[in-house]
Design goal:
single chain; 231 residues; alpha+beta; Pseudouridine synthase; 2 domains; ten-stranded mixed β-sheet; two-stranded antiparallel sheet; elongated
Length: 231
């Protein structure tokens, strides 16, 4: 039996996208009777280790060759941020600096969210996987080197406020491929003149693929993978 197809996985927090690929690869290799290094499994768009949610995996030669078809698609995220501080990494991992203790009104929060909709120019965070002169930006940043990334055009279809209890904001964001939510959060913090950093991130949709159809890595085995492969 050769396992081939698309597998939707709910990535847990602290796992890297490559951790998930390796985990599935070992299971598939055992079924296919091959060595893990010879087993074709890949992912169609990374998630930060601290983020959770939908990861699209491609299993088998036929589908890994087609990975590009499932990559450049719109995405939906559930986002949580904290006002009043900024972080060197744009998320909870970085070193924090207090900016302001101003408490914005809810209508000001809604207005800030709506400001960053449509086509906007966005600068990727320096702690990102973007390449600068052949090296990942986050590696350069962690080495203490100066990183300059150019702003680029992205599309944010909708930012919808789902909860606000100072200093925490919750919202969903429907964005084009290539949009960085950490940068969006920082821009919202600047618009509110309070500073902000991302505290939680969950991806719930990639194109037509939904988190509702994803499998958990907990107790994942060959039978579960086979039964949930999308051909």
């Amino acid at each position: 039996m050769q396992l081939q197809g698309i597998l939707l996985v709910d990535k847990p927090k602290t796992w890297t996208s490559f951790d998930v690929v390796n985990y599935v690869r070992r299971i598939v290799a055992n079924v296919n009777g091959t060595k893990p290094r010879n087993t074709k499994v890949g992912h169609c768009g990374t998630l930060d280790p601290l983020a959770t949610g939908l990861l699209v995996l491609v299993v088998g030669k036929e589908y890994t060759r087609r990975a590009g078809e499932f990559t450049k698609r719109d995405k939906i995220y559930e986002v949580e941020l904290k006002l009043g501080e900024v972080s060197t990494t744009g998320d909870a991992e970085g070193e924090k600096t207090i900016v302001s203790d101003t408490i914005p009104a809810e209508n000001a929060v809604t207005e800030a969210l709506s400001t960053f909709q449509g086509e906007i120019m966005q600068t990727p965070p320096i702690y990102s996987a973007m390449k600068v002169n052949g090296q990942r930006a986050y590696k350069l940043a962690r080495a203490g080197k100066e990183v300059e990334l150019e702003a680029r055009l992205v599309t944010i279809h909708q930012n919808l406020l789902t909860g606000y209890e100072y200093p925490n904001i919750k919202f969903t964001s429907h964005v084009s491929s290539g949009t960085y939510i950490r940068s969006l959060v920082e821009d919202i913090g600047k618009a509110l003149e309070t500073g902000a950093y991302m505290t939680e991130l969950r991806r719930t949709s990639i194109g037509d693929f939904s988190i509702n159809d994803a499998v958990s890595v907990e107790n994942l085995d060959a039978e579960i993978i086979q039964n949930n492969l999308i051909a």
